[in-house]
Amino acid sequence: MSLIKEAEVYLNDILKSLNYEGIAVRLEVSSKREFGQYQFNGAMQLAKRYGKNPREIAEEIASKIDKYFENINIQGPGFINLTFKNEVLIEHLNKGINDFDIFVDKGEKTKKIVLDYGGANIAKELHVGHLRCNIGEAVRRLIKLFKDESIGDVHWGDWGTPIGLVIREIQENNPELPYFDENYTGPYPEISPVTSEDLGIYYPRASKRSKEDEKYAEEARILTEKFQKGVPGIRALWRHIVNVSKEDCNKIYDYLNCKFDYSYGESDADSYVDETLEFLKSKGVTEVSDGALIMHVKEDDDKKEMPPLILVKSNGSIGYDTTDLATILQRMKDFNPDGIWYFVDERQNLHFEQIFRACKKSGLVPEDFDFRFNGFGTINGPDGKPFKTRDGGVMSLKGLIKLVYDTIEPKIKDDIVGEERIDVANKLTVATLKFSDLLPNRETDYIFDVDKFTSFEGKTGIYVVYTTTRIKSLINKIGDNTSEIKLIPNEEILNILVKITELPRTLTSCYREVNLSYICEFLYELCSLYNKFYTNFNIMNESDEEIKASYIGVSRLVYNILHNLLDTLGIDEVEKM
Ligand code: ARG
Fold this sequence. Notes:
Elements: H1 3-17, E1 27-29, E2 38-40, H2 42-50, H3 54-64, E3 69-75, E4 79-84, H4 86-95, E5 112-116, H5 133-145, E6 149-153, H6 161-173, H7 196-212, H8 214-229, H9 232-255, H10 266-269, H11 273-282, E7 286-289, E8 292-295, E9 309-312, H12 320-335, E10 339-342, H13 349-362, E11 370-373, E12 379-380, H14 397-408, H15 418-438, E13 446-447, H16 450-453, H17 461-478, H18 491-501, H19 503-513, H20 517-536, H21 545-569
Parallel strand pairs: 5-6, 5-10, 10-11, 12-13
Antiparallel strand pairs: 1-2, 2-4, 3-4, 7-8, 8-9
The structure holds arginine.
């Protein structure tokens, strides 16, 4: 249990002993440090509840506090200011040097959450927006930290028209391929007739042509239907495209340290579609409208428009609504989770609201199921508009990675050369991309400012990694892996330790609100406090043994925290930079 939680439990016991009930004890970080590190403001609430003077209640409570805190004083109408005793901070935080778990306040019961993130569309190149798969990945790691169970699924968009378009384009260029010969009985070639470079050319070309040429678009649609229905040649070609495209995307996901437990896609939900439709029909929640099967999810108090879900279109085909419902049925059967959290572009908000309503209304999931749509904002270019390359084209994720790499590489020390230089540049590139992507509030759009994001100063991934590297090499240089904090010799060290007491709260908020921003801010603040200490004191030359040991102990503590938090964000450290 964290120190803050322990202290709150202690205060709660005091309230109980005074027969005060009905409020949740919560310590607040004090804004006026001259009065204390933390504040307890419950006296005002209790005063209302019990019709008493808040100051009197505060005095009653304060007089009972004889553990954890010192310097207890009351300000204003009844704010109780509290300062941790040094020995309490030292004893508790020394445990955190090797054990990060003391900073994580686990929930009472373990939950199992399916995470749906990544979601790349097969046959199309990953664009800048796909960088945001970082959010889902970080949440996957955060869930592990809290000892809950996470099941990460990339949910490929592998069942739609983009692939039909690419097949149509292949047909245009190589009509002689056996895939298009209806009399061919197989087996089909094992080697793909298209490479990932081909896909990069075919998809944009086909997409453009389909907008100008109606016949071509219709042919692509028919091809889509064919691979969906399992026509052997077209299905075989579909499989090749899926494999080539996945391999390409996976390289980038790997580069970004994004891992998935399952590599399912929309196509895997296909075999659950009939069952899903039967289920919905049996619940009497569907209806036929203009030849289509639909489901209303409107509620009386809706303030915005809430269109029905289209389950089966009038031409007999199914779309995004139905694959998402079938995927949920599949996940319920395979994993029986407590919730499914989606990490998708904010603009899909309405779609997911419809889906969540449909699942609860029909009983596909239990009433208290933890569905969450964790929408994210758009990444814009320096002009505040969707990110473009210098020649005006759409910026691919590969292009963005290269832009960051090329900006960072020259900033690395000259004596780091060869393979190692490349490795360091890659790690710093990922650190930059992740930190800047996780720092803003999830839902907000942000401008990708490559110069700002690759700076050694300010709230950047490089600044945090740099500080971490600095501490690690200091500890290695001293060669001391056992020293612990013995005393708090100065204000700088005290500030670091107090900041660290706030970490469990930060992690809990981060998890509850699914907002990694809090970790990024915390990392920045902790690094700033450590660097202030590092510049003001010479650790190596400290002659007092106890003080020196304490400096090393604090450094080891800060290192352990930075290391674990960076890992949660999916950022690797470097040995030097
Ligand atoms: N492939 C989708 C897209 O690019 C994202 C998938 C999100 N997940 C889901 N279950 N619908 O828009």
